[in-house]
Amino acid sequence: xxxxxxxxxxRFRLEVREFFNTEFPRDIIExxxxxxxxxxxxxxxxxxxxxxxxxxxxxxxxxxxxxxxxASQKHIFEEELERAGAxxxxxxxxxxxxxxxxxxxxxxxxxxxxxxxxxxxxLWAQGYSEPDSxxxxxxLRTRAERQGDHYIVxxxxxxxxxxHWADWIFCLVRxxxxxxxxxxxxxxxxxxxxxxxxxxxxxxxxxxxxxxQVIFENVRVPVENLIGEENEGWSYAKxxxxxxxxxxxxIGGKKKDIAKLKDLARAxxxxxxxxxxxxxFAAKIAKVELELMALEYTALRALASVSAGGAPGNxxxxxxxxxxxxxxxxxxxxxxxxxxxMAPLVPERHxxxxxxxxxNVPAYAVSSTASYFIARAQTIxxxxxxxxxxxxxxxxxxxx
Length: 400
Hints:
By secondary structure, this protein is α+β, with helices and mostly antiparallel strands. The protein is 46% helix and 14% strand. It has helices at 7-22, 26-33, 40-53, 71-84, 91-104, 107-118, 233-245, 251-267, 279-305, 316-338, 363-375, 385-396; strands spanning 124-127, 143-147, 150-157, 168-174, 185-191, 197-202, 211-222, 226-227, 269-270, 273-274.
């Protein structure tokens, strides 16, 4: 694969870099550099700044407000965004449900939802997993019974990321008891302010509120909120998941993390030498870098497949496995390097000044503890590594 960029593409890189240096909200970048958590308002301001520049819907077709960029431009943009330390977009609206809406939704649904997603006026959540339906998602039991021009929805969704921030949620719901369980599922969008919806927080192992349980009790949802055909939601869900799994790569962020890791290791003295002089630790960094190179090539192939607004294939499962395992490996190295400080988990790290209160413990050591903990989930959410290997075996390699 030729990954050399043309002079025009390098000029585009400089344009993107200049935007993040001079136009993007600096306080948001500084928060992330200090290991602080962003608020809902920070996220909205971040995405509004990208929208104002016309750079928010990187993968959307131009007719719906997308950039019309080539695969190389998309790669450069994402790399520069992460190099600058800016947050990635919240994926549930822009990356997940929007492609389903503009591909399978009707014209009224496109007019109703896409502009607000594009302008960061609404935030979305994803209602897929249930207490007894995780990897076996097709066994879901949240039910939508049609009564006239409404569905009555009852059930529970769990591990709902950013559900406490969301204005809307898209859900897989059971609308038929077809013996083939995948055939009885529909794709339904719901306003989170609808009576009967309750959001309960789930505090994750890093001490933060990322996740939620969402309970539906006799929730009345207009039939017009159904995407596509009733009982065909599984097909739309599979389409969405290929987009989801290509969103995990974060090449630029991983490159930045490894560069910082190397700098810290060179400054980390052990007697008369540095941690980077330790052959075992240096070999681990080299291994992670090689894995990242393989991930980058895989990501570029996946990105090329969506250049015209299409969907990647089942090969996206390989990208998901590579990306999440590489992310975990990087956090493990940070944690190993931080070990001598016995750094505590500090849930209060979203407050300014938390690092100073810890005395001689460097900020990266405390952040690495929380990052390590939350990265454990990466090979679980979005389809476990074991499930992705099954997908690759059957759909890519053609094995029984």
